[in-house]
Fold these 4 entries.
Entry 1:
Amino acid sequence: MLAGLLSTCLVLIPGLSQADETCMSPYMAKIYGQEDFVYVWTLGAVGVGDEQDKLVTVDVNPSSDTYGEVVHTVSVGGRNEAHHSGFSDDRRYLWAATLDTNKIFIFDVHTDPSKPVLDKVIDDFVASSGGVVGPHTTYALPGRMLVTGLSNNEDHGGRTAMVEYTNSGDYVKTYWMPTDDNLNGAVKSGQFADGYGYDVRALPRRNVLVTSSFTGWNNYMMDLGKLMGDPQAMTHFGNTVVIWDLHTRQPKKILDVPGAPLEIRCAWEEDHNYCFTTTALTSKIWLIYEDENEEWQAKEVADIGDASTIPLPVDISISADDKLLWVNTWNEGMTRVFDISDPFNPTVTYDKTIGQQVNMLSQSWDGSRVYFTSSLLGNWDKKNDNTEDLQYFKAYDWNGSELEFQFELDFLEANLGLPHQMRFGSYALYQ
């Protein structure tokens, strides 16, 4: 199927412009006004700078003398497959996870937001969790961090769990994804109960957690060309979204969402009881919604480009007013904006090529600024002699109808590595 692949619980306060990624936890402290920094969790690459994973701090405040520049870096030692990061609920610490060595690096971002420092390393994730491999999403709950896994240490396949920690980094409990041989009280509503994991999001007003599914260590650490040529490996991708009880962490219902559903983004309005996800392998937008009987359902609601060309949807971002959904397609290097005013009928209103490849995006809460980075996975990223627009951080303004370019940082030219996920920083939050 991949043979053609080329390589809120948040209240708006009138009169205040809020700046924060709209995909973050509703429990998390929020930034008001212009963000000062973007923290970029960056993969080390052989032959690039010190070759280590690092947290790169970019000044994004137009009023700053160092606007558009890298103002600080913290290297963490070695290449660990740096991937996703997330703040604690008080936003004082940034938890940055790695998919290969299973380390979680915890950065102090509040003492001096311009110069994060490494405060703690969790290096016993696999042992403490009872065999979970590949910490992915680090998600803030009240006084807790919930960490999703991608794999396990028995067969390095896709069966995995969520792992709960205190904000100080102490292990609390492991919650295994439901499978056919252990549904753990969940209702299997379709064909699949694969036990795979990837992302997690909370809808506190409905006492719901939503998780998605991807693939295990055997696949995500494999060379992409080899993976595409292995029919058996291509069968080992997730096909489920699971609805959980938020307070008890009990799985309630397993929904079929075939094709590797990745990022989950939930609506913010009080009466919008739904979330979106996209499927990497089938290039679809799916709506995960609560019906009139308060039952959770999954429905395919839109195509993303031409699935036969494998555009490979990756990161998505929902606007704060629940009217727009940004969707990046890695293989095309393109972003699309869907009008989701009717969540059952998304329609494309804008598209733009960002680079040779594009992965993550983060938008300000007011929707006026959008940032993009390029790296997907170390062994999956495109590699060629023409490195222009291959590994980058790009900043744009959004005027409501199109993107307006502001500045770009070439991470290869700057010897920084492969830029992945972004999080916002601000002085004002800690004053």
Note: The first helix runs from residue 125 to 129.
Entry 2:
Amino acid sequence: MNDAAHIRSLTSLRFFAALWVVLFHYFPLLTGDEARPGLVAKGYLGVELFFVLSGFILCHVYRTGLEEGRFKYGAFLWARLARVYPLHIATLVGLGAVAVAAGVAGFSVDPNILSWASLPAQLTLTQAWGFAPVAGWNHPSWSISAEWFAYLTFPAFAWAVLKLKDRPLVAVGAAIALLWALYAGFQAAAGFPLTQATIHWGALRIVPCFFYGCALHALWRARPARNQGQTLAGALISGAAALTFAALGAPDAMIVTSLGGLIFFLARLAQTGSPILAQAPLVYLGEISYSVYMICVPWKIVFGNAATRIFQLSHGHLTPALWLVLLVGVVPLAALSYHLIEKPARAGMKLMAEARATRRPSAAHA
């Protein structure tokens, strides 16, 4: 993403989305059971925040190209694959190696981690499309599979929003209506919330959020911010509403709607030149947020098993000090993952695309 397309506050927001998910996964190791306090209990909605952000940012980066006929679907998919696939494969291989080593060393290993029947879906990023029999390997990667579904269908989302670009409020209203209706309908039909779907129906889970993000971008672009004070108030109200609703255990649709409002007003604040959430350390944490998300469960497995063996913990949970090491430790590990795997692999795939583009005119001339 170039500087003109970079809304720094939204990059920072990605870290808080990842942290929310991490707390959801890690909290049971502190208490020894699955009980979580209200705000942490809704941590699975950090994925929804990622999904809405994804729709908003992709429209921000690619909408002009779509309108001017410069959008190249193949190049778009390659760029998105470069963004998510190398780290996905690295965590898959790494977790597989750890599981094998742990088994040899006598540690208990969840047999689903090395689910060979699920491997084809993992490799093709279709594990959230109902093609994986179990939630094997690195379970958080289900959401990357859902993202891949949204990338493949992005032109359809963009077309729908562009049809309503002169009526952005209608687009946002339609997206919110779809979100609420789909959540209610899925709950009634499936017996569990869509926001808790992973390898089964995970691809459907991204649809209302991604469309909501696309629609919010249309409104943001059509109605640029002019008053920083009013925009700040909107961001504070949206953020406070999302936190309050989550802490009180409100319906997920209500929380996700509020999170969309927060994204919209933070993006509007950026239009006014506000420095809120635009500080370099926060932006950096946002840049490594994908690594935070992808390694949080492998790190939990490794650290939890090692701490249990070393400190002879028989009660099934970590001490507060060990739990803090677990929580804080995910950040430097994510930074290493980002600089050693994610960033260079993305750059390498970009160079591959540029090399192909350079050879293509020469081949045509010959």
Note: The chain has a mean pLDDT of 92.
Entry 3:
Amino acid sequence: MLTVGFAFALMGVAFLVTTLVYPHVLSYAINHHIVDNPNARKLQRVPVPVMGGTTVFIGLLVAVIIGCVFAPSPEVVKIMALLFVMYLLGVWDDVKDVSAAFRFAAEMFVVWMMMLLLGVEINDFHGLWGLYEIEDLVSIPLSLIAGVGIMNAINLIDGVDGYCSTYGVMACFCFAIIFYYAGDMTMFTLALIAIGALIPFFFHNVFGKTSKMFLGDGGSLMLGTLLAIFTFSVLSKDSPCAQYADDGVSLVALVLAILAVPVFDTLKVMIFRVVKGRSPFHPDKTHLHHLFIELNYSHLITSAIIVTVNALIIVACFVSWKLGASIDWQVYIVIACSLLFTWGYYFFMEHEHRKNDGAGSAVFQRACKRGKATNFTNGAAWKFLRGIVDSRILGGKAAIQQEASQKPERPDPRIK
């Protein structure tokens, strides 16, 4: 029997395991040169190991195994199998660059198996626009599109240090609350475990120098799959969460609010790639996080701003419900808030940037000045945290060796 205390204990297990395995995975990535190399569209200037998702997956896996020993759950075993498939696909893509067509087909297959094995899909709108249960003819393609869309939306936000992990913690926390009050302790526990596994990675990813790793496609696709499962679990016709609809809560609006920024930002990027005659999967630097980096904001503050705004969209959804908005209007409010930030703010700042022959308007220049003020990586607190995560204990010998190799050699005084 899963209890709240046991769920938090498993969250602690995930945190501890991820922390302990991190230096070993880092060492493996460095020794086998599994790195993300810099190029014109990427923000880092040096190669960075790209196996952070492996540490998160191991932490998640160990905590789930321990949980299943005391509270066996065939459902969780199936979920972990699906996450493992997407993790492998992502790691393969990190190492070998999988074709977009094969990756899309694999994602469709995993979403299909998600529906078959777990019995969850988007097949109940709970009264939105007068719709309740949806026929398979509509729900199956809708679920396939939504599932693949969520996976790729999460994958595409893994471009700034701390963004994907911070968002993942926030989203899992929100789903944990939803599942807890619905009485779904299995999903509640799984959401907490994911939080525990993501937090250690976050600190290395943001504050680490020699111990930094990226989440990589293995981690981001796995996280996207987990959030897709959570979404389907909320919007399925037999979901315990259906009780929220009886209180006037729009479950569609609630889930859409949690996924707001990644989903609407990805829609913006892909639509305008097509408008410009390019493939929607063609990589570029037109995401919302690229705008904040262009405005000179640090990676940490960029992540904090975007995730905070996403949280405010969730608050707007909650407030609209408390004020008596209909379930239809709750959806409209979430969509409006999401578009205002991911589309409105982005295109407004891009317009301001083009003024004065590309030098930017006064509004754009003030934004850049504010952005510069957020770069405080030389502060005492930052150095303290960096020293901890890059230490021999948490960063491992590989981080120490990498730090030594990055230091310039002292010139021989005998050579004139």
Note: The radius of gyration is 22 Å.
Entry 4:
Amino acid sequence: MKKLILASSSPRRVELLKKAGFDFEVCPSGIHEVINPTLSPQENATQISKDKARHGAQKKEGVILAADTFVVCRGKIFEKPKDKNEAFHMIQFFSGVSQDVITGFTILDTQSQKEISQTVLTRLRFRKLNTKEIKNYIDNNDVTDKSGGYAIQEIKDPFIEKVQGSFTNVIGLPIEEVIQALKACGIEPFDKKK
């Protein structure tokens, strides 16, 4: 039986895969993510996920799942903020405008060398936020481990007016698309009823 390896330490990706019924091992790729300015945001997300999967394949045998997520707003790419101050400026920048959340994921079977890569884009719009709301969110959440400085599932007072596309993509992994790609590599979720 093939073993699924998640090449990420993201607690959100771990939770999404568990909820989908997969049994897997966590083994972060450990690579330094570098945005290539000559590539589009989608190409960057795909390339970084490929790099992570290939690096993961050097550490473990099995079916490696790697992903990279970032936010694109007004032509700028936003990754994880360095600190709360940077997170504040990111969220302020998103206030009242639409943004794209892009996740590139790659699945690599180390035995067959089969590789599947896909990019999923979700468009969302923040309502107009005031300084107090942004500060309150940042003060009460860990914002430095999330692309764009926020987690959609943590926002109690909804910042978001509209979501077009995969909601789980905004969390960090477009689970429906990932399930289909894993099935193509012979990995099925466990039947929870057994």
Note: The domain at 4-184 is CATH 3.90.950.10 (Maf protein).
